[in-house]
């Protein structure tokens, strides 16, 4: 029972649910959009950073408990770079700054930031997750398994089966708004029984999207789950 209780506490989501958020301020009406998340940020992690997209630089937030607001980026094939200070003609972007390429086809993305103590410019690295609305629709859940374990279970009316280090989209777990039962476990390894991660209820918002990470935290041998709501106010049409 003590071991099972420890597993149940491995769900690290505010209120044993998804991290709830206020709608992002002034969501862009068109063009490429980006939201940022600093996964497993250490206590001394920076709260903001400068993001250069090749055409300009903007100061952006690096939240770890929620997705950032919505940032606009130029279209086309671009490269994003993170710098600790604002680049100038006298002090351009230093060689070795964390960078990631964004293909032209990716018009809506999550920029996942994580620690990289080996980087001398700023101790960060980043990766792009495609969140185009034609592939990641309202009501769906995007699951990213960042662990070496197979993860699976029930999400309302849906079944989850995630291989190690894989990604999957799950359709709406229920019709309409409300809560639904969740029971997720993982396979610790060969000749070992599946172990429970969480058994609870989560809220469903049919006009929002959810991003869920299965990840390993420092000094932990049990996968943790973090979920984030990506709800955006509908655009108002001009009369």
Could you give the topology of this structure?
Layout lengths: L1 H7 L23 E7 L9 E5 L4 E5 L9 E3 L4 E6 L15 E4 L5 E8 L8 E7 L10 E5 L4 E6 L2 E5 L3 E5 L7 E10 L7 E10 L4 E7 L8 E7 L9
Parallel strand pairs: 1-7, 9-15
Antiparallel strand pairs: 1-4, 2-3, 2-5, 5-6, 7-8, 9-12, 10-11, 10-13, 13-14, 15-16
Question: Can you walk me through this structure?
Answer:
With 239 residues, the protein is an all-beta fold. It contains 1 helix and 16 strands. The protein has one helix at residues 2-8, and strands spanning 32-38, 48-52, 57-61, 71-73, 78-83, 99-102, 108-115, 124-130, 141-145, 150-155, 158-162, 166-170, 178-187, 195-204, 209-215, 224-230. The strands form 4 sheets. It has a 4-stranded mixed beta sheet with strand order 4-1-7-8, with no helix packed on it. The termini are far apart. The model is unreliable at 1-17 and 22-29 (pLDDT under 50).
